[in-house]
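EI: anyone free to look at a 533-residue chain?
SC: sure, send it
EI:
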Amino acid sequence: MRFLPVSLTVLLVELADLDETLALFASLEADPVDGIIDMVPAARTLMIRFRPEKLTAESLAGEIATRDLSAKIEPSDMLVEIPVNYDGEDLADVAELTGLSVEEVIRRHTESTFTVAFCGFAPGFGYLVGGDPALHVPRRQSPRTKIPAGSVALAGAFSGVYPQNSPGGWQIIGTTPEKMWDLSRDPPALFQPGHRVRFFDLAKTARKVSTIATKAPAEASVETAGDALTFKVLAAPMPALFQDLGRFGQTGQGVSSSGALDQGAFKAANRIVGNPVATPVLEIILGGFSFEVSGRAVLGVAGAPCPITIRDASGRSISAETYQPIALEAGDVVTLGQAPRGMRSYLSVRGGFAVKPVLGSASTDTLAVVGPDPVTTGTILTLHGETASLTSVSLSEAPAFEHPASGEIVTLDVVMGPRSDWFTQTGIDTLSSQLWQVTPQSNRVGIRIAGDVPLERKDKAELPSEGTATGAIQVPHSGQPVLFLADHPLTGGYPVIGTVAEYHLDLAGQIPVNAQIRFRPVTSFADIKPVRA
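SC: here you go
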């Protein structure tokens, strides 16, 4: 058992195999350690996020080191049957890799009973174990940029079904019409950890799939009311997104937390208008967002310092400032211009927007496609009218840092690990010795960066999928890193050389395209040594 640093509030427990991982996960769920916030089980690791005011990484490791890992997890009574058209483009390659005929590959796959070990990569993606060992095949040497939803695939000791169109390197052996992720179900993920799974060949049977009884959750939409105060969106060159503090407690379905990328600015926007700090707001990028208000309202804008113009019903225009409350009258048209510095502005309104939460949060997760719909031109946003319980508006808010501009250098502190030892000393030195350019391919999932010298690994070994944290600097085979932001996949199969310190995540969320990043390690990589009470 190894304890590896991920960040200042996250560690990774490396275990001998999946059985030990699931045993530790079950032990910590049955007998929790006070201070653990969340856990993400994977192939041979358990990623744990904890409260540093209650635990140190060393004391948490000491508690975990005493746990009994010999217990076996009892199989679930729930059996999910999945119909498959065995027409995958890699089916012949799998047959060649295994030395079996195509018919024998299909037979062994359909005669296996799998168990959902854990979920990750994408919402509803279950890692299935327990299949025929003869079907263990490596990932493709060259991952595909797009694998269709419903693709049934193999990789290593796992089988799985892609719940949505996504890139991936698994070997595709077939397709299923069954939906793996459906927000009209409760829970939306068809595969839940512990469920047993069997596949059957649609070409040989007319049998229908046996599905789990479900209850539909509330729709992902903005509430409407006839006489309520509204914002009518007149222009949205880039769709605005509802965000709050994040969606927690859904890792069992493969859903990460999402949430506002600049949480300090998000909270400031709410304080400006007197809302509770967790009230959903709009996250806006690149400017041009414009709307008309139907009645009196108080607006707040924080984050990237975008110019704000208000045109009243008579046609007169005035300017307003970020980080100050802005009083609006009926008929006012508000336009947010492009910020010269920073990337994201946060728009709040006193009383809040009438938006329905999805899976406990109003955050829109762009990777998982979970949450309220993006706000586009023509959208009518309904506002909550009740403000009696709110606090006074704030007149003293200010940005927490100087927002970076395109072309400037931004320094981010980095905690080394959990897989720094997968890189040569040259690769580790390269991380901090050169500047990394932010590319236009960046988004809420992650910042794609490019450097003159790629990060050098010790070898080309495959990393079993393991949990990833917001701020993780994941390094694919190209050696050009991706800095994960809030909508990142819950698990990943490339090594993470280091993780941006939590206190610099807000700053990372404001870095614009063509800025440069300098990584500054604040720790040296070393295993965490358990301290027993």
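EI: The longest strand covers residues 409-416.
SC: 👍
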